[in-house]
Please model this.
Amino acid sequence: MSDTDNKTGLDEVGESADFHAATVERVKAAMPDDDLLTDIAELFKVFGDSTRTRILAALSESEMCVCCISAILDMSVSAVSHQLRILRQSKLVKTRREGKEIYYSLDDAHIGEIFETALEHVKEL
Model:
């Protein structure tokens, strides 16, 4: 038995080892690299905060300034600004300046799609 088979536990599966070895190798080849998976985990951590998801829900409806988001969420401007900073650093939210006012929106369509997919999934539960 090779070291690879031992690492995958294939020495314990008997006659179907060849089938399982092929599946393991196929899936291993298709797996994203560890750095990419870490980035995905970090993305979901940002989504894991209910205040940030509330902000994303609001921004999925309309671009807004921090004052409007604060009013919608019934939170202080300071608290919302802190969460918006995290969302911007994670590239989930972008800004646009108009005079002295800064407007926030979802960074791109993918963010809205991720949010909508999660919303649909939770509604099914």
Notes: Residues 111 and 117 are 10 Å apart (CA to CA).
